[in-house]
Amino acid sequence: MENEKQEYVNFAVTARKYKTLLTKKYQNRKPWVNPSAFDIQSIIPGTILEIFVKEGEVVKEGAPLLILEAMKMQNRIEMPFTARIKKINVEVGLRIPKDSLMIELEEIAE
Amino acid sequence: MTLKKNILALRQKKAIVEKGGGDKAIQKQVAMGKMTARDRILALLDADSFHEYDLFVEHEERNFGMDDKVLAGDGVITGTGTMNGAPVCIYAQDFTVMGGSLGLKHARKITKIMDHALRMKVPCIGINDSGGARIQEGIGALAGYGEIFYRNTMASGVIPQISVILGPCAGGAVYSPALTDFVFVVENISKMFITGPNVIETVLGEKISQEDLGGARVHAEITGNAHFYALSEMECLDQIKELIALIPHSNQHKAVSVEPKAPKATKNIENIIPADPKQPYDVREIIYALADDSYFLEVHELWAANIVIGFGRLNGETIGFVANQPMYLAGVLDCDSSDKAARFIRFCDAFNIPIVTLEDMPGYLPGVDQEHAGVIRHGAKMLYAYSEATVPKITVILRKAYGGGYIAMNSRHLGADFMLAWPSAEIAVMGPEGAANIIFRKEIMEAEDEDAMRQQKVQEYIEKFANPFVAASKGYIDAVIEPLETRDMLLHALEVSKNKDDYRPAKKHGIPPF
Question: Which of A15, A23, A24 lies closest to B306 in CB terms?
Answer without folding.
Answer: A23
